[in-house]
Amino acid sequence: MFAVYAAEPKPDDPLAALTVGERPDPEPRDGWVTVTVKAASLNMHDLWTLRGVGIKAERFPMILGCDGAGVLDDGTEVVLHSVIGDPDWSGDETLDPKRTLLTELHQGTFADKVIVPRRNALPKPAELSFAEGACMGTAWLTAYRMLFVKSGLRPGQTMLVQGASGGVSTALIQLGRAAGYRVWVTGRSAEKRAVAADLGAHQTFESGARLPERVDAVFETVGKATWSHSMKALKPGGIIVVSGSTSGPDANADLQRLFFLQLRVVGSTMGTRDELADLLRFCASANLRPKIGTEVPMDQAPAGFQAMADGETAGKIVFTR
Ligand SMILES: NC(=O)c1ccc[n+]([C@@H]2O[C@H](COP(=O)([O-])OP(=O)(O)OC[C@H]3O[C@@H](n4cnc5c(N)ncnc54)[C@H](OP(=O)(O)O)[C@@H]3O)[C@@H](O)[C@H]2O)c1
Question: What is the pTM (predicted TM-score) of this model?
Fold first, then answer.
């Protein structure tokens, strides 16, 4: 079948490992369903995979794509939950030590077909297109958990999103605005800040800019480049929710500020199947649609990867079949 895959790990030149070609059809498995992929979206995770981060060398070649929406053999339209847990685990799947994301152990969604455990295929709300549904499983689910499960923020309080135009950032902005938070955003260029403003950000700032007042919560995926600003942006007792470190993980902890202002730093990863079901219902009932910056046929995936590697994002990058 057609597939976009990582041929081998290439730590220093990830795009050189990206291959558009043919891979074997998935073998049916008991308790798993076959999904004919209609749309899938790109995440930074796919670039990490090309670099060989978070995946063992013997697992290559690996079909890329953590997110997807498509159709089951019986015609049911589905959105995929990409956290594949141990069948014996009960409770929050994100805490299962044996969990993997699609593309870490099992083949991903940038292909004609993908197989997933039956419980990982959720009914797609009719209100969402396949392309919109394909944005939900990673970036939007991660943003949903950061905001509504981890932050403890109440409507009316002020949140700061570090980064304006990326998948998780745009999801945080749209969800935060829909939930009634005061949404502030930093972006690296006027163009990127305009994306955030169009999505409903109340104020936008240059990266690292002094803010008019301190905020209740900061949402971090950038890491080293913005961490010090995030720590300084918080009110006493404020919280940083962090789910990524794109610019590097080794940020200065700023421990004196942490204890003296009684700040809280909380990690967040992906979300549970139930949280994805709630997110899908929220999008349908609040008339919320993910910002898609680029939507191209899957055979043009390399252009999307190049744009993400160059930081040229304006919302989610979606590939269709
Ligand atoms: N833990 C999890 O479950 C989970 C889930 C999803 C994503 N993530 C992580 O979250 C991060 C973002 O993923 P994504 O898919 O949203 O990527 P993306 O679409 O490429 O977005 C990248 C974002 O990072 C910002 N950024 C990058 N470098 C920066 C720098 N040096 N200074 C300031 N801002 C910078 C960009 O801000 P501008 O708009 O200003 O350019 C943009 O908003 C990745 O590290 C990813 O691995 C983690």
Answer: 0.98
